[in-house]
Amino acid sequence: MVFSAPGHRGAVSDHFDGRRFRNLAGSAHEFAGVLRWAATRKPVPWRPFTDARPGPAPQRRVADLRVTFVNHATLLVQMAGRNILTDPVWSERVSPVAWAGPRRVRPPGIRFEDLPQIDAVLISHNHYDHLDLETLRRLHAHDRPWIVTGLGVRGFLEQHGLSHGTDLDWWQSGEIGKGLSVTAVPVQHFSGRGLADRNATLWTGFVLSGSAGDVFFAGDTGYGPHFRLIRDRFPRLRLAILPIGAYRPEWFMGPVHETPAQALQAFADLGAGTGVGMHFGTFRLTDEGQDEPAQEIAALLAAAPEPKPRFWVLDFGEGRDVPAVE
Fold this sequence. Notes:
By secondary structure, the chain is an alpha/beta fold. It has helices at residues 31-40, 133-142, 153-159, 226-233, 250-253, 260-270, 292-303; strands at residues 65-71, 74-79, 82-86, 120-122, 146-150, 165-168, 173-177, 180-185, 205-210, 213-217, 237-243, 274-278, 311-312, 319-321.
């Protein structure tokens, strides 16, 4: 089938029936919901392309822990001397074709040429706004980083000459460098790149663990009980990177995308020291306004009692050192 990716085949589990993966709780939207959304959409207009200046070139290496927001779900995590990119996207569009589909409304916050050497890449799932083949090919040619994905996604990457990596099931761990490991953890979403591969590969979050502590990257997720399960296994998360955008209309997007309020609740469930918001303001995917996620987070934090949660919405290209867990 056109654009579809190969699927995973393996043992049946609590989230895999031998052909298709499923969430631990709740299900993604169905085709009837897609039709209803298409017929009733009332999207808030976004600004046309803004040619914003990129942020400064990141440090080459960081001994402790630093996070830089690039765009959408792309962040540079620098910890214990290693450089990790999450869901890297530098392309103009996130689409199966170059001439149509969601187009970026601003340039990446960090120029590709200003990146430090990348040691590893985390790919949360195979949707076009998270798995960008053009960017992965550029990274492979430049640094040949180790690529970590959920089950089944590696087969698709190997078809495109990207064989330097591994795929993991939920709660499975692997090494991505001396003293640094990564664990795939449950999130609530779905997968697919075409008409015939829905949920044929695994969507996942990741926890990076090393001398700088534990860092959670959610990828794409709705709100659910998986956050408390992650906290049970990683009770002292230093940093949690959570999506805050692509949530309207909530009746349709709710199973797979968090609202800003749910992102803050997820942050509380995780018990992390610091939170960072992502998945907003780059590609117009749903119906909320361009600035609405960040504005809603700001309003919720302003109304929160003291001590207020340390949850950052970084500017594009902005990097910050992450405080130690108290």
